[in-house]
Design goal:
Blueprint lengths: L5 H33 L8 H9 L7 H15 L1
Helix pairs in contact: 1-2, 1-3
């Protein structure tokens, strides 16, 4: 007898997407706006734009390492 776990798998996928969106909303917004300030531009990225970047496969997964590297670079550059 075979049992299908399609509903549980879908819930896990939705939870992962929501977590990626939440992390992206903070990390990508911080990182991009910080680099815009370094180059003398106006910080214009909003939280929902960072959230959309967090949904992108592979790119969204790099949000935390990019934010950490941005923070370290800002300590040196500013």
């Amino acid at each position: 007898m075979r049992v299908s776990n399609g509903g549980a798998t879908a819930i896990v996928v939705v939870i992962i997407l929501l977590l990626s969106a939440a992390v992206g909303a903070f990390c990508w917004t911080y990182s991009i706006n910080q680099w815009l300030q370094v180059f003398g531009k106006e910080p214009i990225i909003e939280w929902w734009q960072g959230m959309l970047i967090g949904f992108v496969p592979y790119i969204g997964q790099f949000s935390v390492p990019v934010a950490v590297l941005t923070w370290i670079a800002s300590l040196i550059l500013m």
